Known about the structure:
By secondary structure, this protein is an alpha+beta fold. It is built from 7 helices and 9 strands.
Amino acid sequence: MILTNQEIVEAVREDGICVLGDDFLSEEQKDFFLLSLDQLSKNDSDYKFGKAYNTGRSHNWAGTPIAEFCDSSLVTGVASNYFNRQSTCEVFLTHEYKNDEGLERNGFLHFDRIHTLKFFIYLTDCDEESGPFHFVSGSHKLGKQLREQGNLSYVDNFISNKKDYDEKKNRLEEDFPELGYTASDATPIIGKAGTMFVFDTDLFHYGGKIANGKERKVMRLHLR
Ligand SMILES: O=C(O)CCC(=O)C(=O)O
Ligand SMILES: [Fe+2]
């Protein structure tokens, strides 16, 4: 299944997401991404599902396979086509292995409060029990409306703005019960290590809720 950047962008515009499959990355790339996460995992992290690291802009990885991937024609081509302007790329690495501290924000069916295009890669095999990413196809159109309505309530004061961000409504079941969406409306993406997909964060989605004894490792690129 070889999709052109144009086809990927069209799918994301239409459905909010495009699943690219599991044969885009070389063994070297996967090994390096995993090793990078394992190195970071020595550091503390305040993430209820395990460990999560925002490693900042991709240039922090200059000269490594991570920067090389960020600069690939796939990532840069899809991003420039989607945004029609320059964008920035941040690299996140996460390891989900805990389910006894309650639900982290990404565990609730939600759209993101900051509009982003994300490249999401499973670095470990992910089955139904390993906290797969779930999504509601096509929901990004409603998600965009809800996000923009929320933004209108922003006030022009930086302290309130920050507070507003923390309190900003983005969870379907808690904040918009009248819409009737529940986590059970969402479809999981199951796949082996290397499985990659691209989504617009206005899409209703959640993930990271692993079963006992299971784990999931992920690399995400945030483009905006
Ligand atoms: O961990 C997941 O599968 C969901 C992550 C998420 O909510 C996001 O990347 O915006
Ligand atoms: Fe999210």
